[in-house]
């Protein structure tokens, strides 16, 4: 599976961005799909995930400000982020996992012992105050 992110930009606090991830090379219909982010000196953290049934989960830090969605073909993953804060600045990665079953995507995304199968190269988000 190849994952290609885009949409990262430099924005002012309070602004909005929509990140896009295009999946190719394999059918991701049944996969967990998600967005993670990492800023310098910090561990990579999950931001939002969506499972094969469309159930979504968000980190507390973005809940209410972010929306994860997939297109009808389930080959494109989006992350709409509003009311951006300086602490949202990071490199955002799209990821897919085929091994997590059921509706356990958030559990596997937050597990310190498990890493999702496939990752994109990331797209940079900068937020100025």
Q: Give the DSSP E fraction (strand runs of 2 or more residues).
A: over 45%
Low-confidence stretches: none
What is the number of strand segments?
Answer: 11
Q: How would you spell out the order of helices and strands? A: EEEEEEEEEHEE
Give the class from helix and strand content and strand pairing. Answer: mainly beta
Percentage of residues in helical conformation: under 10%
Mean pLDDT rating:
96
Please write out the topology:
Elements: E1 2-6, E2 10-12, E3 17-24, E4 32-38, E5 45-50, E6 56-58, E7 66-70, E8 76-81, E9 90-97, H1 105-110, E10 118-119, E11 123-128
Parallel strand pairs: 2-11
Antiparallel strand pairs: 1-3, 3-8, 4-5, 4-9, 5-6, 7-8, 9-10, 9-11
Summarize the structure.
The protein has 129 residues and is mostly beta strands. The protein has 1 helix and 11 strands, in the order E-E-E-E-E-E-E-E-E-H-E-E.
Give structural attributes.
mainly beta, seven-stranded mixed beta sheet
């Amino acid at each position: 599976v190849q994952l290609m992110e885009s949409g990262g930009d430099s924005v002012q606090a309070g602004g909005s961005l929509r990140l896009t991830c295009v999946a190719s090379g394999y059918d991701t219909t049944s996969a967990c799909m998600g967005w993670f982010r990492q800023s310098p000196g910090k561990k990579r953290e999950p931001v939002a995930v969506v499972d094969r049934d469309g159930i979504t989960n968000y980190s507390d830090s973005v809940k209410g400000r972010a929306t994860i969605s997939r297109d009808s073909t389930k080959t494109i993953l989006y992350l709409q982020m509003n009311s951006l804060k300086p602490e949202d600045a990071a490199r955002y990665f799209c990821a897919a996992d085929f091994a997590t079953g059921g509706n356990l995507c958030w559990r596997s995304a937050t597990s310190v012992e498990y890493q999702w199968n496939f990752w994109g190269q990331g797209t940079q988000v900068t937020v100025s105050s």
